[in-house]
């Protein structure tokens, strides 16, 4: 469907009292209030999340907004990711609004009203106190006045020195939109549109070149919210703004079917693609449509793990660096999947293809549901795919990561895509216990199931009478010819293939029953570009196995800067359980159910090297507070001896280096450089040879603050590329004392990585908890490129 008629519709958005805001902004979706979850894992998650949300202090969340507006905060701001103060409040507002829509919880409504009143006061104060740049501003970005006033004049210095200001304010744009969209707060809509006008005015004098330079820094989904503002008002200025906030670096290649995502920060790109799709949906612009659609295709098919997540160390790996999914513990980030599900939902609204729901279901069960702790409700940032590693969780009022913000929302909108409608058809997309009130048709429907613990679902018309087509999804994980649908006990002839919809048109009435049989099978799914590793799936559900509780350091994270990373000991991958099988594709013959335990399995007649005492396969979303297997090394009988010898040798070297490491920096990567308080001049970060680097030119420098743990007897480990061109002579300093003069000009002439260790005299580090390591280029030379830095024990 092409939504070229939208501008006509939006002009009358507020004339009808019969349609909710959700239906106006997202055609074909049922309002959350019209879909009620019944007992099951998703209702448990939603209810637990609501309880968790209400433990947060709204005054602490609002403090940055009042402070930046020159008002007195009513409480101390949360300790935030140095420079990202304010980013959680918008997510929180969205989460309250979604939960209010779904549950009508009065405390959610009260908090929304309170936050909107405070934000309105902050917006009015900014307009009054900062007339030159602040009319309509309502952000909590630290040093807002300095950053935005300079940026409006075309001075990018303070903007570049801050941590992702547009990303930060985008969260409040979305929160205000959602407070209107889901909770009906009219003041929120007014604040939102004034905030949109602020952004337009701030950048109105920018050339296209300046806009694109600004967008080189992560900016969240600013193009999406401007597209939403256009749909709300019908005012073309917002569509123009949405296109101006679209990054051509990504838009142009994607629109031509070119994947240029290697080594790009994943969650910087996904929100851009969400915006591309929204612009395409609302304007009919084919370039934007193509870009949003192709992004989804290439990420879900080529860059996504079996549980629906993507990225490692927050970046999309290249083909050759995909082994990092095994080597690293910073696996797929929850925010990425949060945004991929938004993109999936948007694409499905326009084109209700079952392939979108196949992915949505996989990611919803295996990633999103799994990232909430089922007892205390904490959120997960990284989900390691490394064998026998683990995840850590946030605690309320601490650890205010980005994935805490998106996590607040994730568990409040499970109702979103269970059912949708289009023309005269009702789509049954997900097999989740729930009740639907289709007001337009005066029909109520109840879905009873404990899927995936049983391979069926039952749909009962509980009220009303109406003629329409019921579209029942035939999922891609059911074999061709295996699905069964019965209407009032009579079997429906099914000619469709998996990943499609079965259409049943009739006059439906109270008492009609539809039984759907969903036979699941066990399959394997290879790790992208790493064929030696495979995940085990049963239907759409990833099966994992607990592998012990060797020290789970930081299981519940504190406020420390790296608390979101499961930093406990890495266990050798060559000593993890390894499956030896010449016919791994037929693994279902060697996995059997455990009697009396639904969705629980064990291996039989399968050769496993390094077997645990008891390897029980269960849904990954149920595994918590434990090390686990998600991916298994799977080798045939010819491979395993030579391959394991090679793996064991490399693993021994890597772990020996890891055990010596006190601190490390990955130059060129956004997060590690922020974490280590980088300073630089005439320096740039980029990627080459499937790795990131930083270098400084012609007398420039870059430096990092690194922790010593108050130890002496240290060495600096530096990784270089062995075939650099040009003059590469530079000095290395420790707190302004020269450690070494490096002469790398024409040194190796070998296309391979080279490493060096520089012993650090004890008097340079004695009595110090931190040191600053500086790489200073000589005149006419380049310092670097530096690909990795470690501070080691000798």
Automatic annotation (TrEMBL):
It holds the Pfam family Beta-AFase-like_GH127_cat. Residues 548-632 form the DUF4986 domain. Residues 34-415 form the Non-reducing end beta-L-arabinofuranosidase-like GH127 catalytic domain. The keyword Metal-binding does not apply. GO terms for biological process: carbohydrate metabolic process. Keywords: Signal. Residues 1-21 form the signal peptide. Residues 656-792 form the Glycoside hydrolase GH146 substrate-binding domain. Residues 426-520 form the Non-reducing end beta-L-arabinofuranosidase-like GH127 middle domain. The keyword Aminoacyl-tRNA synthetase does not apply. This is Uncharacterized protein. It comes from Pelobium manganitolerans. The lineage of its organism: Bacteria, Pseudomonadati, Bacteroidota, Sphingobacteriia, Sphingobacteriales.
